[in-house]
Amino acid sequence: MQRKNRVVVDGSALEIADVVAVARYGARVELTASVIAEIHRAREWVQTIVGQETPVYGITTGLGDLCRIRINADERRELSMRIVKSHACGVGDPLPEEEVRAIMFCQVLNFSHGHSGVRAIVVETLVEMLNRRITPWVPSQGSVGYLTHMAHVALVMIGLGQAYYQGELQPGALAMERAGLQPVQLVEKEGLSLVNGTPCMTGIGALAAYDAFVLARWADVVGSLSIEALGGSSEPFDERVQNVRPFKGQGIVANNIRCMIKGSDLINSNRANQVQDPLSLRAIPQVHGACRDQIEQVVATITTEMRSATDNPLVFEDSNGPVAISSCNAHGEPVALATDTLCLAVSELASISERRQHRLLNPYVNNLPAFLIENSGLNTGFMITQYVSASLVAENKVLSHPISVDSIMTSALQEDHVSMGTPAAIKARQVTRNSQKVLAIELLLAGQALDFHRASHVLGRGTSAVYRMLRERVDFRHDDREFSEDLRAVISMIEGHADLAILERAIGTLG
Fold it and tell me: Does 164 participate in catalysis according to the annotation?
């Protein structure tokens, strides 16, 4: 991804990479005059609707099962403030800063469509909180899809709650004051809009999907090193094989591997001992490819959600004037199903990686020193790193159980089917982080294994480039030493996009 210094919200179609640029790398957010005009227009519609004194959910009525209760005109602004306070009841450890920023940016995108009816000051304050790095303290647990996490963001906007500013957790009002911002006094509908919709699951899901997309490419790169280190066959990656089963991802993965191993004289070196490679090697195009196809679909789903208006009610104008439509674009089923699927796809990338690690370490199935270390016995070598991967893969299996199928009724049966989209997205983030670590361990092992071959063999065009990148960060291990620093160095490679971009410049673009 080319690093952006600013992201302009102008009504055009933004991408997941834009969420990452703002949330992770601090790109400045700007609203165009045309977007602000749309927000103003929607607010005028709400003011007209309020003046008509017709029952409108969350504006002239209470919420959830309390929608039957009318709210007096002089209490509607107070309703907005109380909605934020009552909904801010999350529990657990706080979300990481980038996840909170992703939520806030997706809130800005949601309001920018001009169908929520909040004032421009609300959206502009969110933008300035992002630009001035005010990050609300948001507990990670307690959402069945939306509401609680965004309420904790809104608390800071109105001068309550807690926020991180300049590296310090402090009262929300103080953070706003120190950053030069004034708390917002909410008016009709704004409290509901600030806790409503799918920005929470969309923002967190966008980060997970982006990292999964990058990880899928790393999986091809790392898997290629393992194939080479084990003297694997090139036959399974033959283009003719892929053409008779033309899944998009499968073809891309096979092409990536061909590119990586091109020129290696280690490839096919084990044919005399083994006619057919194990599935963890020869099925890489099929497994990685299927995972890629699912990840691509998740990216498409979350991108669509980013570009959608998901408030309730939504405001429009028809031939009879402004109208508020109570509906359910706020239901997060598309993102919930997508992020549950993302868990499955990314978990499989880690699962097959762990099997390749076992083959690299097991002297009974390879021609390498036991556990990839000289003088084994006195040295344990890389034995326990595979234990780490086994633990992470086992955790992924539990986290990959879908939560989107487990709806629990809320609000006296009024909200009788919920998506669980936010916990699904949070799970996907954890599975992705676990899998990044598993792939990093495989890279560490494959690099060590290749060192036992390099003196007498030529590495592939791509694998040699990755090997050099690895050795710039981690030395060959002659004897046992602490693993922690090595692991941190290699994990940082897999977590980032920059090293993958360097590799592509060396060997050509990877699919």
Answer: no
